[in-house]
Amino acid sequence: MYRLSRQVSLILSIVLVGSLAGCDNQTPRAPLPAPQQLTATPTDGTIVLRWTAGGPAPDRYGYIVYRDTVAIVAPPAVAQRLDGIRADSLAPDTLAFVDRSPTPGTVYHYRVTAVRASGEESPPSSQVRATVFPAPVRP
After folding, report:
1. What is the pLDDT of residue 117?
2. What is the DSSP letter of 83?
3. Which of 32, 39, 51, 91 has the fewest Cβ atoms surrounding its Cβ within 10 A?
4. How many CB atoms lie within 10 A of CB 79?
5. Torsions phi, psi for 87 (to 5 deg)
6. Percentages helix, strand, coil for the chain, rounded to the nearest 5?
7. What gap in Å lies between CA 114 and CA 14, rounded to an integer?
8. Which residues does the chain have with pLDDT short of 50?
9. CB–CB of 110/53 below 8 Å?
10. Distance, CA of 69 to CA of 80 (rounded, Å)
């Protein structure tokens, strides 16, 4: 009898501790706002992306730029992730990224998400597209 009640007590303790471990009393955070007003401007073999923050988010860590050669659906899980950008390394109101690796003549589609330090991403920005054309050959 003692052995059975000890096993039951041990199992009950594990269940209670496991249940409490999943409980945190943190206040739910507001969702990150999606970046807004995304633009893409091709210039001299690069594509310059610019956007605004989309709203206040004191815990925003930075941004992730997504690029693909086909339209990017939300969420942009399949698109290629380009370099992440820390929000505090750029001006607080206008953010930018220079894609230095586009292939001339290829249409690229871009979206941007805000990200927290935990890795949680905002909804993606609206999508933009741009193409870098080869420089004309001079005789």
Report:
1. 79
2. E
3. 91
4. 22
5. -65, -35
6. 15, 35, 45
7. 38
8. 1-23, 88-92
9. no
10. 9
For residue 60, the model assigns a pLDDT of 80
Task: Give the integer Cα–Cα distance in Å for 44 and 47.
Answer: 8
**What is residue 71's predicted lDDT score, i.e. its pLDDT?**
83
Domain ranges of the chain: 36-131
Other beta carbons less than 10 A from residue 114's beta carbon: 28
Alpha helices by DSSP H, the chain: 2-21
69-32-61 Cα angle (round to 5): 80
Domain boundaries 36-131, corresponding CATH code: 2.60.40.10
CB atoms within 10 A of CB 8: 10
- Return the pLDDT at 113: 86
Closest CA to 101 of 90, 93, 113, 110: 110
- Cα angle vertex 97, ends 115, 56, to 5°? 40
Q: What is the 3-state secondary structure (H, E, C) of 21-50?
A: HCCCCCCCCCCCCCCEEEEEEEECCEEEEE
